[in-house]
Amino acid sequence: MSPSLTLTTDSSILLLSFSNNFGEIFEQYTNISIIAIDGYQNLLTGFTYTQLPTIDDYNLALDFSQAIATKPLLTLDLQLPPQCIFNTSNNLKLTTQVVSITLEDQYALSASTKQMISDAKATTEEMNSASSSAFMANNMIPSGASFAFRCLVSMDTIRFLRFFLIDYPPNVLAMFETKLPTSEILPKVLLDEDERDGSLPDIFTTYEVSIYIFNNCGNEVIQLFAYIAVGVIVILLMNCFFKRLESKPAKILLILLRMIFVWNFCMSNVLSSFMTFSLYTFLAIRFPVSTTLMGKFNLFFSFFMGILICAFLIIVFSTIKKLRPFIVHEVFFFIF
Q: Fold for domain 4-102?
C-alpha cells in the first residue's frame, strides 16, 4: 500500500490519500512529517493536516512565505515509525513513506488580497445566480433576443477558458471555481465512477468533470425531453379540448402552458446549453470508456448525444433557410 499526493483547486492545498483505513493510523503521526521543496529553503512557514470524512484522505495545507513560479518538486517524508512499515503481522503497512509532487505556481498573497479574492468569488456567484434567475423568468414569457440569455451564454463561454493550461492569477481562478446555478426540476441522478474506466486529464478532474458523460449532462438532457413531453401534451390538449372548454381560467392555463413550453422554454435551454453539451460529447468521444457495463452505457450515450447535436444543427439551419426569404423581404420593405 502506497500513499499518494494530488493537487486540488487550491494551489496551497494538497490531497494526501491512503487506503484500507490506514488514515486512522496516520492520524497519530501527522506532527512528524518532513517536507522539502527543491530549489527553495525556508519557503514554508508551516503546514497542517486536516482529516476528511473519508478517513483515508487528508488535506495538506501549505503556508508559503514567498511566491514560486518554477513548478518545483515537493517531497513529503511521512517519517512513520518502523512498526507501521515493516511489521509483517500488521496487514496495514506501507510500501513507501516518501511521496512527491510537482507544485503549481504559487502567489504570495497578503490578507487583504485574499479577502479581495474571496469577495470577488462571492460576487461572481451572486451574478451567476441573478443571471440564471433572469434567464428562467425570461423563459416564462415569449420574447426575442434576451439580455439575460446572452449574459448566461457569455459567462459560460468565459468559463470554458478554465480548461486551458494557463497559469491564471488567483482572482481569475476564484471566478472559475464558482458554479453556474442549475434549474433542476427532476431529481438528479449521478452514476458511480469505476476506476477501471480510467479518468480525464487533470485539468478536467480539477473542475469536477466526470469521465461519464451522463454525470456531466445526462440529467439536463432528461429535463429537456421532459419539457418536450409537456409541450406535446399541451398541444394535444389544445387541439382536443380548448374549443370545448367553458372555463375561462382553464383556457388561460392552457394558453400559459403553450406560451411557456411550446417551444420557448425548451429552445432557450437547448441554446444556452448547446456549447456545454458539445464539449462533454467531444470529451466522451475523445476519451471513450468501455471497460465496464456502466462505461459501455456512457459510450452509447455519447454517440446518442452526438446524433442529437447533429440533428439540432440540421433543424436550425433548415429553419434559417426557410425563414431567410421572409427576413430578407421584411428588411427590404423596411429600407425602401
A: Immunoglobulin-like (2.60.40)
